[in-house]
Each structure stands twice: as structure tokens, then as C-alpha cells.
Amino acid sequence: MNKPIILIVEDELIIALDIKEILIEEGYESVLNVATVEDAIKTIENNTVALVLIDINLKQDKDGVDLGTYLLEKDRIPFIYVTSYSDKTTLERVSETRPHGFLVKPFKPIDLKTTISIVLNNFIHRNIDVLRQDKEIKTDIPFILKQSIRYIDENISKKIKISDLA
42, 70 in Cβ contact below 8 A? Predict the structure, then answer.
């Protein structure tokens, strides 16, 4: 089974190569040498990217938060900020883009691997609870619980004994 493509948006080549090496060890295909927001957007629109790792400071007119804003508006690809910046002002800017993760450099390889794994899993299953809301549970145990909840609702102003619920 092919692992998903992860886009690395990092303008420092050594850091980008380090991230790529960690991802290759995990079996991911990765896109490298994307150092600007414009190149990242082109790559995203021309490839099936499953996740974007974004450095905030890209030393360009647009920074990683601008890319995060773009990804938030599209809402089809999860993204993680991987940055040296964790000051209050940066965190406030970043929070507005609602990233799926945030790693502070320097990071341990295991931190990157586990964060990516969790973010990809959560993104795949992001709609599962919404779908479950419409389905009625048909086992006996939830039915018994429903009866107990109904009894509590109907008798909320009275003293309720556990034996009554049982």
C-alpha cells in the first residue's frame, strides 16, 4: 500500500532534507524543494497531497501562515506547522488558521512521525461522528440506557433511587 504524499514547505534545505529523510524512513513519498507559498499552492493543485508540513518563516512576501490560511479556506488537506517560532504573537496568528498540528524546532524524529500519523488518521475520520448522529443504535444495552435517561428526564425534580434506574 502506498503511503500518502506529504508536501514539505521549507526554505532551509538542510532542514527540508532532514524532514524528508525521516519521512522516507517511515515509507512516505515526499515533495521537496518547495520554498515559497506560490510553489506550494501550485504543487497542491497539481498533485494529490495528503498533508502539508509548513515552516512559518519562508523569507518571502508571503509566509507559512498565508499558506495555512489558503489551506483552511480550501479545507481538503490537513497541515502542520513545523517552526522555530512559538511566541505569543505567532501562536495567535497561527491559531486563526486552525492547523491540525504544531511542532517546534528542533523536534525529535518520533515527534514528527507520531504527529503526522495522528493528523492523517484524524483527518480521514473527521466526519465519522457527524455520520453517527443520524444512525440509531439497535443493541439492547443502549436501549436500556435510553430508558434510564428517559426516566431521569421525567423524574428530574424527584429523588431518584439507583434501584429505580436498574
Answer: no
